[in-house]
What we know:
It is globular, with a radius of gyration of 20 Å. The chain has helices at residues 2-29, 45-65, 69-75, 84-102, 116-140, 142-145, 148-156, 177-187, 194-222, 224-232, 251-256; strands at residues 109-112, 191-193. Helix 5 (116-140) runs antiparallel to helix 8 (177-187). It has one domain (2-256). Helix content is 65%, strand content 3%. By secondary structure, the protein is an all-alpha fold. It has 11 helices and 2 strands; from the N terminus they run ααααβααααβααα.
Amino acid sequence: MGGLVSVLYGSVAYTLFLGTILYAIAFVGGLPVPKTIDSGAPGPLPLALIVNTALLGLFAVQHSVMARPAFKRWWKAIVPDSVERSTYVIFSSLALVLLFWQWQPMPQPIWSVTDPTGVVILRVVFWAGWALVFLSTFLINHFELFGLRQVWCRLTGKTLPPPAFRTPSLYRHVRHPLYLGFLLAFWSTPVMTMGHLLFAAATTGYILIAIQLEERDLIAIFGDRYRRYREQVSMLIPLPWRRARIQEISAAEVDKL
């Protein structure tokens, strides 16, 4: 019964994530949804700036704090291990829903691209960025990243294997292709408004901070192996001369690290 409840809980969390990320694409891209980053009647600019900054900060704090190992150790004393990731997904999704709901439009234009070719290029980059985001999750383990693998293991009585260091495909060219995809999607717009610029700049700053925190945790897990990977592969911009030549090593070699 506990396994079935876990799977149901994990499925609800994943469905909420899927709906939220799809809405995020429309929200940032100005697609036909009830509310986008620039839609609605603008209010006082100082108030909009305060509210939007607070919403972005709330998401950043929730997303980072709940992902840290120290918080997870404390959190798992309350939340079963099998649904810890699903719970994180739910909280992250709700933080984004709150942002979409309470976002205050700041439609003052910063720049505008009117050339048809330029507009097409920016739109292609926008969709390429989101494609890169989804591809990156599947290259590592999409279903574990969003909690479904954990609840399935709980149902089937299997043990989730320990974290394994891998560098599939894109990860041999750039350490964080998922974050690169977000940056491409957030900055590629024909019309950059003040609100969109705030969103893009704040999320860029958060991503740069999150990378430092995430890599600190990865070094704690994989040690010198990840340090060597970081030396060989660039963080966000693929550089051909820094292409990784990392091969999987045996368990005996892992034990030496």
